[in-house]
Amino acid sequence: MIHEKAPTQQKIDSVDWKKSLQNAFSNWQDLAAYLEIPLNAVNISNRKHFAMRIPLSFAKRMEKSNLKDPLLAQVLPLQLEHSSPSRFSSDPLDEASFSPYPGLLHKYKNRVLLITHPACAVHCRYCFRREFDYKTHQQSKDNWQDVFSYINAHPEIDEVILSGGDPLMHNDSYLAYFVENLSKIAHLKRFRIHSRIPIVLPERITKELIKTLSRTHLQKILVLHMNHPNEIANDVITAISALKAAGFTLLNQSTLLKGVNDSVAILKKLSESLFMHGIIPYYLHVLDQVTGSAHFAITDNEAIALHNKLKAETSGYLVPKLTRELAHEPAKTWLI
Ligand code: SF4
Prior knowledge:
37% of the residues are buried. The chain has one domain: Aldolase class I (TIM Barrel, Alpha-Beta Barrel). It contains 13 helices and 9 strands. The protein is α/β, with parallel strands linked by helices. Strand 7, helix 13 and strand 8 form a beta-alpha-beta unit. Helix 8 packs parallel to helix 10 and helix 12 packs across helix 13. The structure holds iron/sulfur cluster (SF4). Iron/sulfur cluster binds next to loops.
């Protein structure tokens, strides 16, 4: 929902993103007061691990006094997260078995994923890495050389994905280190960043960051993780436009979430809004069965029915592929 004029890049550069991060909402008392919702309207989880984290920029897009707001639903830690069915697990994709070195996941033939940072600017309650063992993958700059050597020794790898957590949580100099080292590997063609930061903390997308990420001959791809059209605000549009102007190919993958985007009208509006801002809606994921996320689940039949209706409502390029990630498959699995 857009109410104000888009801020300029200069305005974005003038905000201290680290301070914004420090000031993110971390408890229900403050958030409830801000959103004008009675404290006892909901049972909140008090678990310390993966506790509430919501930057103000994202909270500003939530509707006041609406406990069912689709942005709030994605990030509100509820007590019912503690009662997961047994088929939900802490590592639903068995990622632990795809890691030849700390920080490196090699699941698919042509690409590897680097767990570059253990933290995120927001804690999405449906996240499939919410219980991930980040400690095993944390390492110093020197240890990354083993990972770069591994990529060097595997000419079939043509793309590297910077993931996490969120890679843009690193400061610019650390990111420069990744870009520089990856650019030296002769057989790499692309690097891809998966990040929710341009959406939840757009002040992080500074001119300096974009310059840092652009110092490479590799093709640059940024995959955003937007789930609802209300996530596209004016500061987000400024950040996205700057990335686009710097030559990033922008893709979006969403997760199909009960109570957030399980409606044809919302999915259609999301695709249209993304496309209007130069972002291709490419994947619509069904939920990974991670502990604590069962309240977002819809059945495969419901997902397929929604997808079929979306296909009948809009142009083919606005219909993301409906997919699921299955451990030990050579690629993502398309539901239809
Ligand atoms: S930003 Fe991505 S990795 Fe981080 S909590 Fe959200 S979904 Fe998970």
